[in-house]
Sequence to fold (319 residues):
Amino acid sequence: MLLCLIAIFFTSLNTSFGVGPDLPKWKVGNWWKFSIEISGDVLDLVGTSTYTVVSDDIDIHQNGQDFNCYQIDVLGSGTIYGNRMEGNWTLTEQQYYLKSDQSWVAIHSTYEDTVSFDDASNITPISLIADRKVTMKIIINTTYNPPFEANKGFPLTVGKSWSAATTETSKIQTMVNGDIELETESDSYTKTFLVLREESIIIPTGKVETYAIKRTDPDGVYAEGYYCPEIGFDVKTIEYNSNGVLQKNLELLSYEYQPIIDDSHLLATLLPILVIVSIVVISAIVAIYLFKKNKNLQTLKNDLVSKLKKEGGKPPSTK
Fold:
């Protein structure tokens, strides 16, 4: 049961964040801290996790290709509890996303926990041994081939839908009280996404405007993520199993987000304005020049007429 909870935990971290009307512009130093609540059949997990952008220009080589990526590091910790069980968990993780469209490229995770059980915990065979303490460490290296295009729905509008397919391969090393087990799992799947609505929600950081996006997995698991363009991340994710039972709740606690300014986009926006301003300025300069020229000609003409009158001559035609 504990392994099932851990599987839910890792799945919960790989949510489709970064979805919105435009791709967020992450830069090194951006971070987002979340509360985590995960429910299992026997054990529950609570705590916090912080996602930090540590690189916006790292090359990852896998499956014979090179990918220029963002690197986001995750640090998490918290407690585990259940029927006469308690413990602690920690997580360190490196996530890699394509710079171009933020598709998932790879995730490297190290999860550790220590859980104490007693003989009434109803877990077999652990329940046969009184006051048993179990220490577990799981190292998972996951790659996506091709990169999983969870965010290819940009730009988003309500009602827009898309799908993304990949083969997810995980090399897993599990150590339980010193015993080591190695395995490799590979799964090809297609997940679908649907922009449900625009919604104002209240989270610990305050009231924010979000896009609610539903993700549906092939096994019937589904989630709703609430992306906030102002924050550059999903601010809340709620996930359910195939029976509609709540499995996970992830909610933003605090953040630091300063987006990168896209100069090319800014130039494209300002260029028409600059052209109009230039035309107005040039037109004003030409008008002033013509006005001054006409004024000078009129002054010259007046002087000439005055001179001719004084000399008794006939003034020139004004036609």
Q: What stands out?
A: The CA atoms of residues 83 and 121 lie 5 Å apart. Residues 2-260 form one domain. The radius of gyration is 33 Å. The first helix runs from residue 2 to 13.
